[in-house]
Amino acid sequence: xxxxxxxxxxxxxxxxxxxxxxxxxxxxxxxxxxxxxxxxxxxxxxxxxxxxxxxxxxxxxxxxxxxxxxxxxxxxxxxxxxxxxxxxxxxxxxxxxxxxxxxxxxxxxxxxxxxxxxxxxxxxxxxxxxxxxxxxxxxxxxxxxxxxxxxxxxxxxxxxxxxxxxxxxxxxxxxxxxxxxxxxxxxxxxxxxxxxxxxxxxxxxxxxxxxxxxxxxxxxxxxxxxxxxxxxxxxxxxxxxxxxxxxxxxxxxxxxxxxxxxxxxxxxxxxxxxxxxxxxxxxxxxxxxxxxxxxxxxxxxxxxxxxxxxxxxxxxxxxxxxxxxxxxxxxxxxxxxxxxxxxxxxxxxxxxxxxxxxxxxxxxxxxxxxxxxxxxxxxxxxxxxxxxxxxxxxxxxxxxxxxxxxxxxxxxxxxxxxxxxxxxxxxxxxxxxxxxxxxxxxxxxxxxxxxxxxxxxxxxxxxxxxxxxxxxxxxxxxxxxxxxxxxxxxxxxxxxxxxxxxxxxxxxxxxxxxxxxxxxxxxxxxxxxxxxxxxxxxxxxxxxxxxxxxxxxxxxxxxxxxxxxxxxxxxxxxxxxxxxxxxx
Length: 584
Hints:
Distance between the termini: 59 Å
Shape: globular
CATH topology of the largest domain: Alpha-Beta Plaits
Largest sheet: 8 strands, mixed
CATH superfamily of the largest domain: Nucleotide cyclase, GGDEF domain
Number of domains: 4
Number of strands: 14
């Protein structure tokens, strides 16, 4: 083989290796904004990657620009290095301002490559790079060959994202997400053993499970076939971003989850383009939803994205978000804006500081695609409010001002948007105007009486103001309205029950919420308090250990800020229970 740079023959070796590709999110824009800071951050992150690779018996093959390529003899070592890097990255970012943080997307391929002293070549390298481009920030995606090598490996679990056709590849590739990338900082292997398998089984039990059946072309010719394949890929890509609510399953699974659905469709291309889609409950073969879409054949590219978005929005209304999904869907015609919003909302619901900050960035991207899209504007305002409520703020007044700015811009777009009034309610509450806050939240509920989110927001305001019985009523209402209510609703309701002394009920709800999301730190904090009050000190200490495993920067005083409006005695009692379980 000839080295293109020197023209000299270099020795090559063909080997079966796992290849890890990592790339910085929004690197060019960050460099344009501040070259020196971004370069310094990149150098620091390269060091984290080098350590993670070395500790997992790999080597850095190349690192041009913001791209890093590493190789490993064992696919498990590649996943281990990726996990350790993501964990180190999150720890680094947690202590820095937004301008000094970087997020990475990671992809892993496996197979025979050509290796030289300075490069890696071959299909697994290209697959790793392409799969990486599909990942969310700080997410690890792997190709089917990696899954096949590791599917029975203890401590490693995967969530299938479906079969996709990667750019410049003739054959389709199975893609999987590594489950529970957040590892214990002191012992990553222990974190994998304890967290990944549990999170994967919780996903299968509590999230909506959907099997994507490849769309069929009913017309002859390559155009209809390509359109049908593209529709399937679009749906897989969009549903893959909804990790908080949807898990995709393969048709080959012998025992699909009890509540599972199949999504299928057809494509007919003639004088008109007609696409049909339907959702069927697997256990009963009952059709839950069906629709058809007609377009001019000259608009097939735009039609593919728009139909996929319409289908996913319909699934959300029926299976996950209920009526709230209609508001999110109706506010824009930009598929890219809608996708950015969906990804941001999934991150926001995880209620972790770094996730909120990534969500804000995605909401900003959505607004760059469509400046008139009200949903990400309001959601960004909620992120600023939450940073104040959850004690993540160094300047409460500045963040509330940003939230108010979002609210004002949203009001200019649509003064009757329900979420806008809910946001206004939280801003007023944090400004010490509880009566006006509740009035605004009631307006939101009046504008969308069948909307679970609005009922939940009203419950959250009642809880903030110490009116726990009324909070529980509205949380119950929110859960009744949602096909698949959110973990934050269940956790907030359990907290209100705790403050009313109904600890057994609260413990049961916390435990159910954690089966849905094994990394929801607020639920573990609440469970710590409840177990302590039920006399289960060992259980409380175990829950507190989980808190620190998920959030090593957890501090009681910061956490207690979400209860700042309660009386001093109640606040101190909550702090004492957390302190007694070993938290600081």
